Amino acid sequence: MALPIPETLPTSATPPCPHFGECGGCRMQMMSYEDQLELKQGIISQLLEREVPIIGSPDAYYYRHRMDYITAFGKVGLRKRGDGKTVVNLGECHIVQPRVSKLIPKVQQWIEDFNIRGYNIVTNRGDLRYFTIRHALSSDELMVVLVTSSTETAIEPLLERLQGEAESVVWSVQSRTGDDSHGEVQRIYGQETITQKVLGLDFAISPNCFFQNNLLLIDRMFEEIVKHVRGFTMDLFCGTGTIGLAAAEQAERILGVEVEPENIRLALENAQRNGISNVEFVTDNANHFLAFYEGDVPDTVIVDPPRSGLAPKFIRKLNRLNAERIVYVSCNPKTYLDDLRQLEGYELKEATAFDMFPQTPHAELVTLLERR
Q1: What is the per-residue DSSP string for 5-34?
Q2: Mean per-residue pLDDT for 221-238?
Q3: Closest by CA position to 181, among listed 160, 210, 152, 203
Q4: Number of structural domains found in the chain
Q5: 117 and 189 in a common domain
Q6: Is residue 124 left, alpha or beta, with left meaning phi > 0 and alpha meaning psi from -120 to 50?
Q7: From CA 194, how far away is CA 210, in angstroms rounded?
């Protein structure tokens, strides 16, 4: 869920993108970046009823690590603003690096040349559903993922052509209806993963793993998280271990919990490639894990949940765990506030916002909660 940004925004900048106003990807390009930060800071401070500083992105454009471009109705692009059934054909995209932006029209042309059917998002029929890119900025390695609706596909010529454009080319299948660009990997050409540095550590990124999207601001946000870590630390919803491994030097030991086996495999690989030994990773649902946990009480618990926030059952178990401090990373201020009200005996001590999504109504929060 986005911040409650006003529907009508003041104009203080000239949008650089020719698709602005039609494409639903960037809504705030008509505002200067200083005005965007001021607006977001005011809204977040009002929601939390305290002054919350906001850290801006080093660049308000060219920051995104991942983009899911829809291939439908003979177009490659994003949904039209206010119309989820219409796709805007993008000739360029200003929130990704130029290497990615230049690839979009090539893919559009190749889809036409090879007579590849897109996917009708109204009738849920067709072949190629998404053209997804993942770009590791520190290594300049590019992963392109073509997501089809089934294994009966005609994308082979496109897969071959893309091998000259990216370090990793992936074919995956997502047969369920709905807006989901994550699929079951069928084949990988080139590298199985790409590598991004965070706080001097190397992290492997796979086709379906979660990774923070603003790679220009990720180091600064992780520094904020790490500075709150003390002693034995539980990293719940740990994903591929990025936060826990970044905090390993600060912590006595790290225990990461993640439900997806593929993420845990990468977390173990990331620990090994960075020579970090004071970490342990468990494949389990975080709620189930806490229900049966009988070990030491952690000094610090890190939670970085999806936009839906923490489940009530999970919060009750977190309350019973009674850790000294909780570092809560949130991408949804509404669910964060709902969760905060249910965390018994904890006081909000520090909060910092990070503009991980310039030109959009979104922001990220890093907060420290301490037991009263």
Answers
A1: --SS----S----TTBTTBSS-S-TTS-HH
A2: 97
A3: 210
A4: 2
A5: yes
A6: left
A7: 13
Question: Do 9 and 40 share a structural domain?
Answer: yes
Instruction: Check whether residue 21 and residue 136 sit in a common domain.
Output: no
User: What SS3 class is residue 237?
Assistant: coil
Cβ–Cβ under 8 Å, residues 183 and 166: no
Domain end, chosen from 162, 196, 230, is at 196
How far, in Å, CA of 92 to CA of 235, rounded?
A: 38
Which is nearest to 306 in space by CA: 281, 285, 283, 279? 285
Name residue, tokens 């801006």: 56
**Tokens at 54, concatenated:** 């906001």
The pTM score is: 0.94
Report the C-alpha gap between 184 and 228 in whole angstroms: 37
Dist CA 89 CA 253 (whole Å) = 49
**Rounded Cα gap, residues 366 and 246, in angstroms:** 15
Active-site positions read: 331, 364
Range of the domain at 313: 1-63+214-372
Q: Among 120, 127, 121, 128, which Cα is nearest to 145's?
A: 128
Pair 179, 132: CB distance under 8 Å: no
- Taking only the tens place, the pLDDT of each residue in 51-61 is 999 999 999 99
Query: What radius of gyration do the chain's Cα atoms show?
Result: 21
- Decide if pLDDT at 341 tops 70: yes
Q: How confident is the model at residue 307 (pLDDT cuts 50, 70, 90)?
A: confident
- Supply 104's token pair: 């979009």
